[in-house]
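for the recovery benchmark. C-alpha cells below, seq after
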C-alpha cells in the first residue's frame, strides 16, 4: 500500500532478545508526511496496563525506503525502516496536542442526514458519530431507525443528502468509489456468496479484483478459512449450497477479511441464524477481533448481541442518535427515556443473573 506506516512499540525491548510489543499501528497516506512531526510525542495512557511499556517509541515506516533515522523532540524516534511483520493487534493510542490529548477517530460522521423523498421524511437526521481505531461500535435500534442506512453511507453504498463522512481523515467523496469499497470489509445478513464459485474462490474475490497473483490469492483464502475455523482442505472446493447457514456466514466474514481491510462493516450478519449458532459466531467474532484488532461497525437490533460485542453502543431511534456510550454507561445512565425503556428489561435480567 502506498504511503507510510505509524508504529508505537515498546522501546525497552526494541532490539533485544524478546519480541517487541507492538502497541499501535496505522497507515498514513503520502500527503500526511509533512505533518508527521505533530506526532512527535505519544501517550499510552489508553493502552491496557498489561501492554503499557516503560518507554515507548514512535516509528514512521516507508516500505520503499531503507533505514534513515531522524530525530524528533520529546525523546521520540522517527525513522524510515523496512516494513516488518507484526502479529500483535492494534491498540488505541492518544497523541499529545498542546495541553491535552487527541484520540484519533478512524471513521467520523458529521451532521449526516439522508432523505429518499426530497425532504418529506428522513431515514437519518443530523447524526454525528466517531469510531475510534480498533474499537467495535454497535449501531443498535429497531427496524427502520436508520442504522443500516448509516452503515451504508460509510462505504458510499448510499450517498448522504447532507453532512460529511470521513475515513482516515479523508472525506469519502474524495476516494474513488470502487477502491474505497474494496478497502472496507462488508458483511450483511444475506451473505451474498456467489453460488457458481467454490468457497475458496468466494473468499478470494476482492484480492482477485485487486490484482493479486493466483498463488497469493489461494494462500490468503486458506489462511482466512482457517481463521474462521473452516478447514480449507475440506471446505475450499465446496459450493455455498453445500454449507449450513452458520458455515456460509463464516465464509462471509472470511471474504470480508481477505484483503486485510482496516475496517469491517457488519449489517446484522447473524440475524437469520438460530440462537446457538449465533452465540458461537459472536464468540468467534470476538476472538478474531482480539487477534486482528480491526475497527468494526456492527448493526443489530438484538440488545444482548450489542452488549456482547460492543466497546461502545450507539442507540438510534427514528433516524436520530439517542446516545452513544460504553455498555456500562448506557445501563447506568441512559440519556433519554427511549434508551432507558429499551434497556430496562435486559438490565433487570442481567441483575437477576448476577444475584444467582
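predicted aa per position
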Amino acid at each position: 500500500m502506498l504511503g507510510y506506516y505509524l508504529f508505537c512499540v515498546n522501546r525497552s525491548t526494541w532490539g533485544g532478545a524478546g519480541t517487541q510489543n507492538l502497541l499501535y499501528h496505522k497507515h498514513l497516506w503520502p500527503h500526511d508526511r509533512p505533518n508527521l512531526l505533530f506526532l512527535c510525542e505519544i501517550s499510552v495512557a489508553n493502552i491496557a496496563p498489561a501492554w503499557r511499556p516503560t518507554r515507548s517509541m514512535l516509528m514512521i515506516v516507508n516500505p520503499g525506503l531503507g533505514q534513515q533515522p531522524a530525530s524528533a523532540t520529546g525523546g521520540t524516534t522517527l525513522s524510515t525502516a523496512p516494513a516488518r511483520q507484526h502479529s500483535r493487534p492494534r491498540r488505541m493510542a492518544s497523541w499529545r496536542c498542546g495541553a491535552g490529548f487527541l484520540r484519533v477517530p478512524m471513521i467520523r460522521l458529521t451532521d449526516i442526514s439522508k432523505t429518499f423523498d426530497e425532504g418529506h421524511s428522513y431515514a437519518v437526521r443530523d447524526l454525528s458519530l466517531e469510531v475510534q481505531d480498533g474499537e467495535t461500535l454497535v449501531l443498535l435500534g429497531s427496524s427502520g431507525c436508520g442504522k443500516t442506512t448509516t452503515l451504508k453511507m460509510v462505504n458510499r453504498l448510499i450517498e448522504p443528502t447532507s453532512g460529511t463522512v470521513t475515513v482516515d481523515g479523508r472525506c469519502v467523496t474524495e476516494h474513488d468509489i470502487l477502491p474505497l469499497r474494496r478497502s472496507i470489509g462488508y458483511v450483511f445478513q444475506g451473505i451474498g456468496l456467489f453460488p457458481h464459485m467454490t468457497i475458496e474462490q468466494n473468499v478470494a474475490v476482492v484480492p482477485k479484483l485487486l490484482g493479486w497473483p493466483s498463488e497469493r490469492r489461494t494462500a490468503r483464502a486458506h489462511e482466512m478459512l482457517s481463521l474462521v475455523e473452516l478447514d480449507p482442505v475440506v471446505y475450499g472446493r465446496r459450493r455455498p449450497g453445500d454449507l449450513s447457514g452458520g458455515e456460509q456466514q463464516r465464509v462471509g466474514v472470511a471474504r470480508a477479511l481477505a484483503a486485510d481491510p482496516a475496517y469491517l462493516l457488519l449489517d446484522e450478519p447473524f440475524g437469520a441464524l438460530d440462537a446457538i449458532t449465533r452465540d458461537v459466531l459472536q464468540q468467534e467474532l470476538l476472538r478474531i477481533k482480539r487477534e486482528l484488532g480491526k475497527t468494526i461497525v456492527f448493526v443489530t437490533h438484538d440488545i444482548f448481541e450489542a452488549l456482547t460485542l460492543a466497546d461502545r453502543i450507539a442507540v438510534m431511534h427514528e433516524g436520530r442518535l439517542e446516545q452513544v456510550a460504553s455498555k456500562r454507561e448506557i445501563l447506568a445512565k441512559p440519556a433519554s427515556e427511549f434508551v432507558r425503556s429499551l434497556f430496562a428489561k435486559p438490565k433487570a435480567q442481567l441483575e437477576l443473573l448476577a444475584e444467582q
